[in-house]
């Protein structure tokens, strides 16, 4: 505890204050440069209703929330090509789960020895489930052609996998001597990026690895680099000759052109952007930070997480999501559908937390007690602790009532998808908007043949409920 009359003196010696000042002096620091999201902040006028029913559609009412729920399911049904003749109340949780492909590409990497490499290099992956996740993400990057040099013989992992290596355009592959920049956003301990950089280096790429994270206090990747024993590198993972550094900066303040465009050695670099479980609005801040360097980005792979702490103010696909939620394809028998804006988005992000109960069997609640799935999750259970954004200054109390509780809405509408299915659909819509933003604003092309862009599941929900990835790559070298 610091007394008021000692605050000024303490600020001169406080380690955190000193660290923050050092960060603000870095050339790549530009305060709030990536804040603000993209698209309109204010909702369109609501659909006119009769005076007698007007109160029913006001935010916070049960009817309002029910119609938002039906529209979410209708939008999900339309976007992901489900059976449009099926009434939304009949859509099941399995239907929603199967709406996007599950592409678990971990087995080939496990067979190639990723676990043994972690042991050899004393890399703490976080446990078996994290190892499987990392392995599958590596498999996706390999399929995207992010590692092997042009005309290089594919390694054993690619040979033994079911990857369509012929689909990878050779122009994406890093040529000898050409820098390959691995840019990990929200790196945390940096274990995922460390592995990606090691695999890229083992393929012969001239690898440069940047970890962008606001804290970096645990610095596990740095320890692995610095304490690497001699002669431990193998064909799968090679930590020698990797140029690496950590950029201690919040994603809202990182000015990437200063890092990657003012250094001549990165002029012809190919950039691969990665992130594993980038929480909430962090995904949106990271994607917006890529806009100034979008002409240099060749591939992007982001595993999203913590949709419950997304922010309307920072969300980068507001217009895209509004268009989807207000579109004619979402119309059903209820003609008086409310418009979509900050209050409606707040409802989506709160409902999206319900998917923490998608693991089979049992799951632990935030209180640490083990209960059956059917008894889990009331309205505000989140994927992570409840550190909610309220930066868009909306009246969140208007949507935080028992009338808009996800359990109550599912029960009143008789939805077959259960709370987990509705929560999953909310997640998918939030990520769909981001996927479209990547295609429209980062890769910027009207020719879909030059860019592969997708939203898929990289592992099953039994490995992690947060199993969606946004991925895209160019099939031809950008000019």
The total count of helices amounts to 16
What would the principal axes of the Cα set say about the shape?
A: globular
What is the alpha-carbon Rg in Å? 23 Å
User: Quick one: how many beta strands?
Assistant: 9
Mean pLDDT: 80
Main sheet properties: 7 strands, mixed
N-end to C-end Cα span: 56 Å
Could you characterize what this model shows?
Helix 3 (62-79) packs across helix 16 (418-442), helix 14 (342-351) packs across helix 16 (418-442) and helix 15 (406-413) crosses helix 16 (418-442). Helices cover 33% and strands 13% of the residues. Helix 10 (220-226) links the parallel strand 2 (206-213) and strand 3 (243-248). Strands 3-2-1-4-5-9-8 form a 7-stranded mixed beta sheet, sandwiched between helices. Strands 6-7 form a two-stranded antiparallel sheet. The protein is built from 16 helices and 9 strands. The longest helix has 25 residues, at 418-442.
What are the defining features of this structure?
479 residues, alpha/beta, 7-stranded mixed beta sheet, two-stranded antiparallel ribbon, 16 helices, 9 strands, 13% strand, globular
Please write out the topology.
Blueprint (H helix, E strand, L loop, with lengths): L6 H7 L1 H10 L37 H18 L13 H5 L8 H7 L1 H7 L7 H16 L12 H5 L18 E7 L5 H12 L3 E8 L6 H7 L16 E6 L7 H5 L9 E10 L1 H9 L7 E9 L12 H8 L16 H10 L10 E3 L5 E3 L33 H8 L4 H25 L8 E7 L10 E7 L5
Parallel strand pairs: 1-2, 1-4, 2-3, 4-5
Antiparallel strand pairs: 5-9, 6-7, 8-9
């Amino acid at each position: 505890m610091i007394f008021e009359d000692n605050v000024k003196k303490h600020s001169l010696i406080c380690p955190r204050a000193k660290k923050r000042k050092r960060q603000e002096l870095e050339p790549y620091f530009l305060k709030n440069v990536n804040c603000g999201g993209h698209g309109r902040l204010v909702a369109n006028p609501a659909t006119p209703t009769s005076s007698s029913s007007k109160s029913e559609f006001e935010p916070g009412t049960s009817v309002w929330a029910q119609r938002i729920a039906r529209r979410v399911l209708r939008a999900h049904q339309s976007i992901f090509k489900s059976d449009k003749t099926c009434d939304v109340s009949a859509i099941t949780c399995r239907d929603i789960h199967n709406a996007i492909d599950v592409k678990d590409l971990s087995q080939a990497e496990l067979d190639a020895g990723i676990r043994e490499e972690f042991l050899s290099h004393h890399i703490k992956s976080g446990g078996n489930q994290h190892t499987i996740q990392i392995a599958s993400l590596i498999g996706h990057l390999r399929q995207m052609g992010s590692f092997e040099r042009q005309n290089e013989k594919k390694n054993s992992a690619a040979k033994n996998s079911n990857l369509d290596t012929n689909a990878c355009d050779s122009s994406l592959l890093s040529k000898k001597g050409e820098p390959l920049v691995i840019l990990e956003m929200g790196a945390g301990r940096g274990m995922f990026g460390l592995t990606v950089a090691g695999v890229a280096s083992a393929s012969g790429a001239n690898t440069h690895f940047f970890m962008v994270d606001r804290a970096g206090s645990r610095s596990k990747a740095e320890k692995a680099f610095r304490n690497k024993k001699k002669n431990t590198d193998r064909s799968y993972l090679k930590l020698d000759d990797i140029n690496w550094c950590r950029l201690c900066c919040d994603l809202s303040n990182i000015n990437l052109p200063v890092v990657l465009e003012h250094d001549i050695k990165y002029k012809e670099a190919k950039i691969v952007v990665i992130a594993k479980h980038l929480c909430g609005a962090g995904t949106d801040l990271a994607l917006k930070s890529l806009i100034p360097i979008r002409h240099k980005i060749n591939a992007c792979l982001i595993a999203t997480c913590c949709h419950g702490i997304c922010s309307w103010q920072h969300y980068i696909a507001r217009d895209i999501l509004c268009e989807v939620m207000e579109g004619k394809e979402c119309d059903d028998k209820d003609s008086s559908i409310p418009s979509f804006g900050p209050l409606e988005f707040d409802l989506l992000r709160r409902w999206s937390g319900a998917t923490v109960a998608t693991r089979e069997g049992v799951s632990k609640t935030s209180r640490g007690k083990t209960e059956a799935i059917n008894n889990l999750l009331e309205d505000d259970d989140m994927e992570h602790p409840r550190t909610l954004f309220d930066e868009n200054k909306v009246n969140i109390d208007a949507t935080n009532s028992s009338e808009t509780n996800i359990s109550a809405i599912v029960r009143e509408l008789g939805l077959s998808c259960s709370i987990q299915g509705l929560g999953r659909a909310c997640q998918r819509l939030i990520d769909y908007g981001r996927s479209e933003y990547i295609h429209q604003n980062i890769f910027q092309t009207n020719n879909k043949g030059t860019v592969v862009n997708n939203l898929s599941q990289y592992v099953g929900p039994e490995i992690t409920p947060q199993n969606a990835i946004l991925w895209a790559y160019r099939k031809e070298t950008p000019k």
